[in-house]
């Protein structure tokens, strides 16, 4: 699973990826995740590690972004991150 115990750095995506939304999620004792996204893709940031996921045009509720290794689902103020058989639940915070 993503190493969430690293301190969150002021990492941000390159300007050409044009992410218009930046959200911060608290994942309990696991730490904090930042998600930067647009209509086509999302960048998941944990500590100094970044993962890029691409939008899935699924009929499932919420916004779904996927890579080979993981699935990220945004539904309201909740984020669900699935990696293999492991699932992490996070809640949106006010600060990004």
Question: What does this protein look like?
Answer:
The protein is mainly β. The protein has one domain (15-92): Lipocalin (Beta Barrel). It is built from no helices and eight strands. It has strands spanning 21-26, 32-37, 41-46, 49-56, 63-66, 71-75, 78-83, 86-92. Strands 1-2-3-4-5-6-7-8 form an eight-stranded antiparallel beta barrel. The relative contact order is 0.24.
Structure in a nutshell:
The chain is mostly beta strands. Helix content is 0%, strand content 50%.
Topology summary:
Elements: E1 21-26, E2 32-37, E3 41-46, E4 49-56, E5 63-66, E6 71-75, E7 78-83, E8 86-92
Total individual domains: 1
**Beta-strand fraction estimate:** over 45%
Q: Which spans of ≥5 residues are poorly predicted at pLDDT below 50?
A: 3-10
Helix content: under 10%
| β-strand number | 8
CATH architecture heading: Beta Barrel
Tally of separate helices: 0
| CATH topology assignment | Lipocalin
Spatial strand arrangement across the major sheet: 1-2-3-4-5-6-7-8
Structural class assignment:
mainly beta
CATH C-level name? Mainly Beta
Largest sheet: 8 strands, antiparallel, barrel
List the helices and strands in order.
EEEEEEEE
Q: What overall form do the CA principal axes indicate?
A: globular
Mean pLDDT: 83
Distance between the termini: 22 Å
- CA radius of gyration is 12 Å
